[in-house]
Amino acid sequence: MSTWREEYQGSAEAERLTFERLAQDMMDVQVKAKKHGKAPAIQRAFHSKAVFSAIDAKLTFVDDLPEEFRAGFAQPGASYTTIVRFSNANGYGQPDYKPDMRGVALRVKVSDDEFHDLLATNFPVSHARNAEQFVAFAKATSGGIFSKLAGLVQLVVKFGPSEVIRMLRNVTTARKRKVSSVALESYWSRGAIRWGDTLAVRFILCPAADAPSAPEPSDKDPGYLSNEFARRLDRDDVRFELCLQPYVDVASTPIEDTAVEWLESVSRPIKVADLTISKPNSGIAEAFTNARVIDELSFNPWNTTDEFRPLGNLNRARKSVYDASSAHRHVYRWRTETPLRNRVLGAIARQGFLVINRYIEWHKLSLRLSLLNLDAFRYVLREKNLIDTEVYEAPPTARPVPPSSVDETVRQARTYDGTFNDLSQPKMGSIGSAFGRNLKPVFEPDQFDNPNPVEVARELLHRDTFIPARSLNILAAAWIQFQVHDWVNHARNPLGKDDVIVPLPKGMTWQSSVGGPREDVMRIASNVAGRDPVDGQPPIYFGNAASQWWDGSEVYGPDSKSANLLREGPKLRLVDGHLPVDMRGMEVTGFNESWWLGLSALHTLFAREHNLLCDELRSRYRNWDDERVYHTARLIVSALIAKIHTVEWTPAILATKAIDVGLSSNWNGPPANDWLTKLGIWLLDAHALTGIPKTLPDHHGAPYCLTEDFVTVYRLHPLLPDDYCFYNHANGSKIADKGFLDIQAAAADDAMRAFGLRNTLYSFGIAHPGAITLHNYPRSLLALERDNEIIDLSVVDLVRTRRRGVPRYNDFRTGLHRPRLRSFEELTTNPADIELLKKFYGSIDRVDTVVGLFAEPAPTGFGFSDTAFRIFILMASRRLQSDRFLTVDFRPEVYSSFGIDWIANNNMTSVILRHCPELASVLPRTGSAFAPWRPILPNSTMPSMTGATP
């Protein structure tokens, strides 16, 4: 007997990527089956209609089991409870009298820790040679008649006429034979499986030789096969024999080509076990009840042990493809069909805008053209700039225990660590999941210190004179840090372990730790690697120490232990309306690193909002326990924060009409009275017609994650001023002048309690943040103490970006589909900056990403560059679109009717006024709460009211 082996198409990883694409295609087949089969919901892609099921059949191995077939659970006389499901092969759930193949699925229970799924159909060979043929054929032959005709043409182009004819002949032959009883059919496995250490086999489930005959097939009864099986069981047990065909050689019994039949003349079937299906103790009625339970199961040949794992390309694909199909059916994953008009007209529009943008920048177009252009940008970025960096199993591995059903508690509440947002991939976006990429990383160790980041920071970044952003207030600066702490956190090693060593300019020294020596190098704490390098990959992949979802984790904590310490019943713990402090004087909240008074104000505000919501929910839903109240309040607060960021903060910092309308449409859909814009979107992107919260989750081809490129464009430290003035909100009188270091770390709580939330918010509301530009990096961040480490954050921003493999600026912008710059003069018009850039970089291609983003002139009204904006339009929508709780589960059943109304009717202004009503007169009447507030003139400058002339 020859030795068998598997042969991968390319590599195991290449196959995995192919299988993921095929899984998406199979979900499309399910969508078509629902549409054209008139099914009420997504069903199995195949074998959707159960003919008969049994929950307690017995699989018993023969006493004289040949030695070569004894492996694992397959031992002489061993008997196991087995679930059995007979089915019609079609995905439409059609009547039993329709021409079709039949199938059987077995789940053999060896123990609570070991199961084996065996799947077979009543035709000895597959029509497809491999997984790609199988899925392509399924996709081509699903849908209506025109869809099938077009699909067959595509099959001919892809595989050639002879292969298509062979597949059609095979399927036609398999389906045309009438079946009188599923108890009298033989069922062959699709491909081979491993059997023990050395064997590869295909298996056949054959009816017992003495099985009674059946009446002629009915041509009227849609359930005749079910009824016939039930009558048969009423008379006696139904028995099958499990037979194995051993591998012989690659030509006659191929492992990889499932379209070749293993002839019995070449490999004689050998009986190894009996399958006995008995009448349920409580009668046939119980069998039909059990069928409903069994129908919810997801059979997969990879539910087994390594000794019995599936073999061959088609089988290797079945793990991911079947899992995706099952998740789709169980409403764990979603797939929506893109209308034909969108596919055709959208492609034409994108090509048109590609030409237009060569001559006119998008923000200089008319409003409606700008909106459609932005939609085209986003489509291209989704197609080309979502790179998954997680490491997955390749090749697939066996799993002795099938995936369990999802716990009901995680269906209606966010988990603390971000797991189970995507029910089909529970770890997606959770703590520890990898940062992805928008651009292919560039790892250049020899360029880490070229040019010297300390000199670059000193000459190009450091603030000489404060440059204000006059369209914003300081709350806008605090807000983005508040959000970033929810989204991203690169865990750091303690200083002294794998430090990043940065050489200093000649004659300069640095003290890297409190009380440490001064040295001629700067030591920076290194990031904790997300994984060991794989296949020689560079060490540039990191896990996120925060949940990547928009879940308010900066307020609520990253895990159950932290979250529970912050709670008192359903409420967040506050002391006299303020956050509690620890022994160091630091305010206690979900995330308090890089802490300062701006963060203290926002954390305090939303902690109070949470507690108020708990009271509101308790008064309306008196039968709710503390957990339901807490988690619902958290959902409401998190969604309200997401809404504020989407429709208020972003249009404030990107102050153009197109962004205002576009971001509002992201949440609410296009304006109701703007029929022309709605028509354009209907023609090009129908999924954008309703607002993301009314759509289904969509990861757009790559599992959800935030990216290293996203982290880079949110290095917005110039927003922070160095100096702050605090005023009385009631009369405008000055309370205090403070530097940033006076209101950060433990000093923040003292300042919050001294000034109060109202005065703090007012003082920030009337003051400007810094502009995001060169020469405006806060002096306060140039020697900042953090966890016993002393850092120059301007240097850290450059060093981190280089060492994480983010491409340099010119490659960064061209990777985001912007024209490549040929000279420094195209980057900036400032002569002094041009000279500095030439001095440090020599070539425009060597400019640091952070430096380039700050140097690039921003479009009118924009607070940051158009290049950074490309990352934003991709990831801002993605944070909403991928999140189950901001799409399909953004509904009253989860949030409560009160919660949905609360989110719809509130914004940043109403949150502030709810907790600080005295600020009503100073907040902008029509603008965002992140726009400058109205300052109150101090009383001493006001004329006397007595006899005064107004």
From TrEMBL:
Q: Which InterPro entries match?
A: A_dioxygenase (IPR034815), Catalase_sf (IPR020835), Haem_peroxidase_animal (IPR019791), Haem_peroxidase_sf (IPR010255), Haem_peroxidase_sf_animal (IPR037120), Oxylipin_biosynth_metab (IPR050783)
Q: Which residues form a coiled coil?
A: none
In terms of domain of life, where is this protein from?
Bacteria
What terms describe the molecular function in GO for this protein?
A: catalase activity; heme binding; metal ion binding; oxidoreductase activity, acting on single donors with incorporation of molecular oxygen, incorporation of two atoms of oxygen
* This protein's UniProt keywords: Dioxygenase, Fatty acid biosynthesis, Fatty acid metabolism, Heme, Iron, Lipid biosynthesis, Lipid metabolism, Metal-binding, Oxidoreductase, Oxylipin biosynthesis, Peroxidase, Plant defense
Q: Which cofactor does it need?
A: Ca(2+)
Q: What class of enzyme is it?
A: oxidoreductase
Instruction: Tell whether Ion transport is among the UniProt keywords.
Output: no
Among CDD domains, the record links this protein to: PIOX_like
Q: Which GO terms describe its biological process?
A: defense response; fatty acid biosynthetic process; oxylipin biosynthetic process; response to oxidative stress
Under which EC number(s) is this enzyme classified? Answer: 1.11.1.6
Q: What is this protein called?
A: Catalase
Native species of this protein? Phyllobacterium pellucidum
